[in-house]
Amino acid sequence: DQKMALLASRARHEVILVTIDHADAQRIKEYTVERTRLGGKGRGHKYLQFVRDTLKPAIDANLRTLPEPENTGMGGSSLG
Question: How many Cβ atoms sit within 10 Å of the Cβ of residue 58?
Answer without folding.
Answer: 11
